[in-house]
Predict the structure.
Amino acid sequence: MVSRRSFLGGAAATLLYPLSARAGHLSFDIVVYGATSGGIAAAFEAKRQGRSVALVGGWRESHLGGMMSGGLGYSDVDSPRAYGGLARYVIDRINERAGHPPGTFAFQPRFAEAVFQDLLARHDIPVFWSLGVTQVRKENGLIVEIATTMGQTFAAKVFIDASYEGDLADKAGVTTFIGREAASPQDLYNGYRNVFNDGGGSNHNFVRPRFFLKFLADRHIYLDPFVTPSDPASGLLPGVRERPQLTSASGDGAVQAYNFRLTMTRDPRARVPFASTPSDGYKKANYEILFRYLEALRDGGFLKPTSTMAEENFLLCNNIGDGLYDVNNRGAVSLDHVGGSWSYPSASYAERGLIWKEHERWIRGLFYAFQHENDPRVPESVRESMRAFGLADNHYLDPFPGDERHWPYQLYVRESQRMVSDFVLHGADIAARDGSEPRSLSTIAAGSYNRDSHHTQRIAVPLPVWHIRNEGNFEVGNGGKDKIFPIPYEVTVPRRAEYRNLLVAFCVSATHEAFGAFRMELTLMQVGQSLGMAAAMIAEHPCFLAVQDVPYADLRRRLLQTPETTKPYLPQTN
């Protein structure tokens, strides 16, 4: 059981009610659901505007900050100029703690958590850990109160869903979409991608390393997909699906792969090694794809026996200081549990917990297969390079019940359900060139990253011979010289006929393609701050004001006056 704790910041104290707390019935001006970076930013701004606010932790949350404190220490940023407001303020405070210069976007998650704790403590914002929302009571298009699994009920004038899963919006019955819409002129890379790599990302498939690109017309490595090679009757390898009977670019329910972003080190003094024995549930057959891939790379002479072999081929390592790395997926077989995320968005909490653990088992099993599995297809040079890595001993020391120390607190839910509203953000909005007129001028945040989706599945393809393909990845640039695109207020607002006092910070109204660029943490913080301001304006209004009717000119003026707005972050409506 997580113990009761309070964190002090200046003369104020913020109480973070433990998992066992049953706070009874509480009422606030604004309730923010989800203790993500965006939820914290929303609660902070609402409280700074003089409103009473509660931050209610979502399912499985017991730490502030979501991915920023739970694993993701390297922020994907094309242009730092895109990010101001509270997002830039938080990054600067993290850099102060780490002793890094301002403007650094790589950080240790433990410093992010400390900054978020101080931020809420300074403003006396209560945080209630809830284990998830279970019921939403509504009247005449308004959410009146929500109930949690812990028996708490929260009433408010305005609710903000800042969770990665969109649970509050879902329990309220907001229209949502899961998967990939069909491709269209507004979303060229949507839908089933089949075997095409026109959106980039071939380096995450079964291919020869980039070094050989200029010498080889066909870089693909043709791994046999069958349990018994060349025998379709033996069945497909674990993790490989039959090729879908879909036309390319058709819509489907596929969800891009999740993983855990690991905080790791090669320093023996700070390294927590992976177990040298198989973890519970480990099956060697689940990693047959890896062994066949290693064999093909070895026999083709594509593995250079260097000390950095692991980073060059299998682990995307970003330096976050003090000998630590934020480790992400790299290549065809890595930390992504490809195909394991599909049922997560619509799963019950109990089912979701099993999927969460299955992602952890995949990664722990992967490291065992690399480091210790007795299989002659694993080159010793690869084995030794991977053995150099372990989890960082100074991170994730207070795990959720049933989890292990040093394992990241947060599963990287890259995409869950997305709200469907009257305004839907499209890939074309992200790709718009300089001088083009945005469809909406009601900018509340900016983004600055590629339209990016990880693979969704592994499929068996018959030509030119039977082989395995990873399907679903694209990495397509955004538009404009500055690589910055606007996020309009409308994508956070449900249809008026559904709700008039709910705002959505993460699972916004966007297509799969557009969401791939939106989903970055700094953008989420900016959206959260803006929604906290909008909610405060609603709460202080003398008459009822629907979220759809917030006057944008007033919202913009107040956002630009906030003390932490150190850089402009509404660039395309200046």
